[in-house]
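Notes, p. 3: input format for complexes.
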Amino acid sequence: MTAAGRSRTPVAGSASIDWLDDQAAAFSGATTLEYYLNYAGLKDALSLAPIFRRHRSLFTRTTVDRVLRSKSKDPRLPNLREFVVDGYLEQAAGTVTEAIAGRETEDTVRWDRKRLPYRSVQQELTNEPDAVRRRDLDRRRLDVTAAQNELRERRWGLLNARTRDLGFRSYIELCERLGNLELSSLRDMMERFLWETEAAYRTRLSRELRGIGVDPAMAGRADLLRLFRSPQFDGSFPQDRMIGALQATLRGLGVDVDGQPNVILDTEDRPRKSPRAFCAPAQIPGEIYLVISPHGGHDDYRALFHEAGHAQHFAHIQGDQPFAYRGLGDNSVTEGFAFVLEHLLYSKPWLRRHLGMTASAQYLAFVNFHKLYFVRRYAAKLLYELELHADDQPRAYAKRYADLLTAHVGVRYSAGDYLADVDDGFYCARYLRAWIFEAQVRSVFVRRWGERWFAGREAGAALRELWGMGQRYSAVELLRHLDEPGLDIGPLTEELT
Ligand SMILES: [Zn+2]
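Output follows (497 residues plus zinc ion):
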């Protein structure tokens, strides 16, 4: 019998926290499994509404008020509180969110006397070699995005109204207080990072853009899609070695990949399967799906190793902990561990050992530049979102979006993307914290065990110990566990300049 059977109504004491923990586990397990089935191409419809209905008491205003007012010192409470409030907001905006997804699936963009599905334009832009045509297609995409923006504005209107109704001054305050994101110190760090990496980034960007025949002064967002596709490196990353390289790496870290029944590797070809690798932790740690359609190429390798990092993190979490520590908490932690494995693709000794790549200098310079672009883009997104969410007039910030992204990424961004490029809950901050965390964890490993740490049992044991804790501790607390002072952007800046 589950705790839900013992007590159906959430009350203020620890019984309610047990109830919440059980309900959160059941709800998350069911939604994750539904996502897995849909994205793996095993089930056509993604039907989340029945799951929300089954668990409706989790996200009622009564439950939200109780968790917000609770004075309980139970250490599970902060993670559960954030989960309940997120779910409450998500439900409040549910109909509009579905309408936006519906438009994104159904809308088309007129191109070459065809109608391209809106969501396939990104891929088309990546494959279009002609810069003039690329910008023309991106302008057409932007018109369609702009026509959808009324829905996105309505969605943020709803979220902002609920946020204030719950007693928070702004969405920033809500995310800051519930997610413990320390946004203002992160902003200071990222402003310094942008300043310190500016000159090197600009020089490299101009060189790379000229290399694909684009005048840097004319460059736009779509040109970067083309630039970073860089098929010239794909030959070194063959399809048939992907899984083998991953498994050999994990064995090197002391992970018994053959005796790991809780990680289910889904490599089967299905017509509706997502082309992009993903990880679905349906039960943590008992049922983790790692879904891939291995095509090969450097981008595909990085995606696989990233998702495998999530999968190994979830698969190693000690199962006797409450769900609040296994499936909730600071997602900078799981993103950080995903980056730890992904970053092996940036390691000269790893490339030599697992792919036999001896001349890796050009590739490494390129992927480090790509990463620098990514971190700068997310830093710019953070600066923008801190302005956008301080107010409840999103439309007034459209031009700020274009200005901040253009200034820090160095190519033209358009105001029309000012809401389509925003994730809920300051997820941009989770990624930034994860990049900082990962560079620090790796610098500790390199200091202790050298550049070839990935081939040694000691680093594997240290990683498994950290994985085992799940997300009971935040990225900052885990760093202190490694005798680091807390989040320090130094190692990341050093690596990227
Ligand atoms: Zn991830």
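The mean pLDDT is 94.
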